[in-house]
Design brief:
With 436 residues, this protein is an alpha/beta fold. The protein contains 16 helices and 14 strands. The protein has a 6-stranded parallel β-sheet, sandwiched between helices. Strands 6-5-4-7-8 form a 5-stranded parallel β-sheet, sandwiched between helices. Helix 5 runs parallel beside helix 6 and helix 9 packs across helix 10. 40% of the residues are buried.
Length: 436
């Protein structure tokens, strides 16, 4: 693992993939789904996933069977993780509010859940049951009544059993055996079997990411996720064995994943570099991790912790670990990060699976302006305005002035007719009083 200086740190990772070919494929698939519906789904699933399906929807019997296939310890861990994730997201809920004024005006905001959300779950070797919990449970907590899951089938037409178990525990309302860009298109536009949704969330390969990008506007999406990232800020108090293990925990995801240590300690830098090499050779996914470290891994030696935090803020990483002696004292220096892990006993994987906060986080520097997936992403807000006669008479002329300044005379007229009517009413009322 190379040791570099701060000025050598790549603070804006670029996507070096030429996706024009994939983009054309995705557009073709979306067109087929829109024109042919289920027929295209069956055909593409047979062609791309090698599964010759009779029906797209996963039955309750299939889920029951899957629940019987997984280990009890796995189910117990899933249940506890689901409880913690739900409890964390319950704290994010907001209520509708109303603010009455003395003049009779009432302003407010309605908060309502989306009606139907689609969750994409990768299949095969890239299947992550934890991703089911993280994407579905915030929607459930938000009150979304229909939570639709799509996932590619195995060649025998079944779905990875742990994924189905996670779906039942998370409260998915319907599951369909379809993956790739065709699944995203089906969720966005609907087919005979799959209802169109309001929002699509969940990770996937380049075809899934490009499909989500293509259908955005027809539906909402969570984000276009990039490769996983971790930045560890560490001082002399850090354990190099821990730090190396945490860097590799992200490197094993993908050859494009990024793992960076920033430290003011040259001694720690040397020890971590040796530990990364040693531990990487023992990993089952050592080839992937080694490629990630070679292409996007680095150890950056800086002058002090202040410089370390400045460098981390430039990277705006998905995951930021503070392996330093007083992490809480330095937390205020963090400006941009998807999730922050404080102290030697808060490794990134505890957040991936169990702590409760969502593991769907902004990547590729987008923590500068994006937030983790949460309840807010599954609700919509509606403004409420109720003006009284008194309030309209008070504010109307100012509104007309602003409307006329923009050349929108019909806007001004909408106010004027009411003010004229109110004035006529006052004059008639005054005449009646004078005649008594």
């Amino acid at each position: 693992m190379s040791i570099i200086k701060k000025e050598q740190l790549d603070t804006r990772r670029k996507n070096d993939q030429d996706t024009e070919r994939e983009r054309r494929i995705v557009q073709s698939i979306i067109k087929q789904i829109r024109q042919e519906g289920d027929a295209a789904l069956f055909r593409l699933t047979k062609e791309l996933d090698k599964a010759d399906l009779v029906t797209l929807k996963v039955s309750e019997e299939e889920i029951d069977e899957a629940m019987g296939k997984v280990e009890p310890a796995f189910l117990e861990a899933l249940h506890e993780a689901a409880r913690r994730i739900s409890a964390y997201h319950e704290k994010q809920k907001q209520n509708s509010w109303f603010s009455p004024e003395p003049d009779g005006t009432i302003l407010g905001q309605l908060i309502r859940p989306l009606e139907r959300v689609g969750v994409y779950v990768p299949g095969g070797k890239a299947a992550y049951p934890s991703s089911v919990l993280m994407n579905v449970l915030p929607a459930k907590v938000a009150g979304v009544p229909e939570r639709v899951m799509v996932t590619p089938p195995l060649p025998d037409g079944t779905v990875y059993a742990p994924t189905l178990a996670a779906a039942r525990i998370a409260g998915v309302t319907s599951i369909y055996k379809v993956g790739g860009a065709q699944a995203v298109a089906a969720l966005a536009y609907g087919t005979e079997s799959i209802p169109p949704v309001d929002k699509i969330v969940g990770p996937g390969n380049v075809y899934v990411a490009l499909a989500k990008q293509a259908v955005y506007g027809q539906v909402d999406i969570d984000s276009i996720a990039g490769p996983s990232e971790i930045v560890v800020i560490a001082d002399d108090s850090a354990n190099p064995v821990y730090v190396a293990a945490d860097l590799l925990s992200q490197a094993e995801h993908d050859p494009m994943a990024s793992a960076v240590l920033i430290t003011p300690s040259p001694d720690l830098a040397e020890k971590v570099a040796k530990e990364v090499e040693l531990q990487c050779n023992r990993l089952e996914r050592r080839e992937i991790a080694a490629e990630s470290i070679r292409r996007h891994g680095a150890i950056c030696v800086v002058d002090d912790l202040a410089e370390a935090f400045a460098a981390a803020n430039q990277l705006a990483p998905e995951h930021l670990e503070l392996a330093i002696e007083e992490p809480w004292q330095w937390l205020g220096k963090v400006k941009h990060a998807g999730a922050v892990f404080l102290g030697n006993f808060s490794p990134e994987p505890i957040g991936d699976y169990f702590a409760g906060p969502n593991n769907v986080l902004p990547t590729n520097g987008t923590a500068r302006f994006f937030s983790p997936l949460g309840v807010d992403q599954f609700v919509k807000k509606t403004s409420l305005i109720s003006y009284s006669r008194e309030a309209l008479c008070r504010d109307g002329k100012k509104v007309m002035t602003l409307a006329r300044a923009e050349g929108l005379t019909a806007h001004a007229a909408s106010i004027r007719v009411r003010l004229d009517h109110a004035k006529e009413g006052e004059q008639k009322g005054g005449s009646k009083r004078a005649n008594r």
